[in-house]
Amino acid sequence: MDVGEYIAQFAEWLDSRGYRAGTIRQYSYDVRRFLRWLNKSPEEADPGDVEGYLGYLRREGGLSARTILRRIASLKTFYRFLRSRGIAEGDPVRVDRPRVRRRLPSVLSRSEVRRLIEAAPTQRDRLMLRFLYATGLRVSELCALTWDDVDLEEGVVVVRGGKGGKDRYVLVDRETSDLLRSYAADGGSDRRIFPVSPRTVQRVVRRAAAAAGIKKRVTPHTLRHSMATHLLEAGADIRAIQELLGHASLSTTQIYTHVSREHLRREYGKLFGAPPRGNSSDLS
After folding, report:
1. Can you list the positions of beta strands (E) in 132-203?
2. What's the CA gap between 40 and 96, in Å, rounded?
3. 108 band by pLDDT with thresholds 50, 70 and 90
4. Is 163 a catalytic residue?
5. Measured distance CA(162)–CA(35) in Å, rounded
6. Residue range 3-84 in CATH 1.10.150.130
7. How many CB atoms sit inside 10 A of residue 228's CB?
8. What is the pLDDT of residue 189?
9. Candidates 130, 224, 230, 263; catalytic one
């Protein structure tokens, strides 16, 4: 098979196992790059070839440890596919995984969230940003959401096929529900609530942040981080936040305990009393 045939069959195999479209695109891209570099049949590759490729990526590509980690995952999955088809027998992807430094997410204050939403130029864009913040949805989940997935009377949203292929429920506040109802009445949608691409949402967020004078780097995911942090500050149970965000592991959610200064102040104060407070906190 040539490279294109390998990739096509790999993509079909991933799809049959319920991998999300974005993951299939990423894995296919990663494997295509590897096969072009390898310049021989993938079943002939050995651990030295994989080590050589990863070394090449580090030297020439300047890729981050996180990206290298994804490339390794892509190749591991590809060779699992080859073994399942009887094309390859062994697994040449036997490498040490790079350590990834976990960075604290960027978070907006409540006032910055308000400014961001108000700076969006259209009703649809303002509602889209408000909905991202109120629900904590990922941008791909927002773009896939249909009116059938939303119960405006109960304020419940069903997220279908989220990360990991799992469905979950999230909540939406009454004011946002009312705005959605008005938006629908104005004919501002089709079957999907927001019939736009993730790239369009990213552009809307970036332009609104610039118009609002927010100097931080702001993406759709920043609203998700901000919602989780603000819930924690308000005293929400971290396991409830885990459920709302759709995190498979509580350790992923616990990063917000490091972001939320208010949460740290509250917990610290249980033993030592409240620490002094200035006026500089941007999360107040």
Report:
1. 150-151, 156-159, 168-171
2. 24
3. very high
4. yes
5. 30
6. yes
7. 25
8. 53
9. 224
Q: Which residues pair with 146 in a beta bridge?
A: 192
Catalytic option among 163, 192, 261, 266: 163
On the question of pLDDT at 271 being above 70, the answer is: no
Catalytic residue flag (residue 126): no
Identify whether the C-beta of residue 211 lies closer than 8 Å to the C-beta of residue 203.
no
Query: Is 216 an active-site residue?
Result: no
Catalytic status, residue 263: no
Tell me what the mean pLDDT of segment 22-27 comes to.
90
Sign of CA dihedral 74, 77, 79, 81: negative
pTM of the model: 0.68
170: which strand partners?
Answer: 157
From 221, 261, 265, 266, active-site residue = 221
Q: Domain 110-272 belongs to what topology?
A: hpI Integrase; Chain A (1.10.443)
**Would you mind telling me the total number of residues written for the chain in this entry?**
284
Tokens representing 61 are 């590509």
Q: What is the tens place of the pLDDT at every residue in 241-266? A: 888 888 878 877 878 776 776 666 77
Two structure tokens written together for 84: 């399942």
Domain residue spans of the chain: 3-84, 110-272
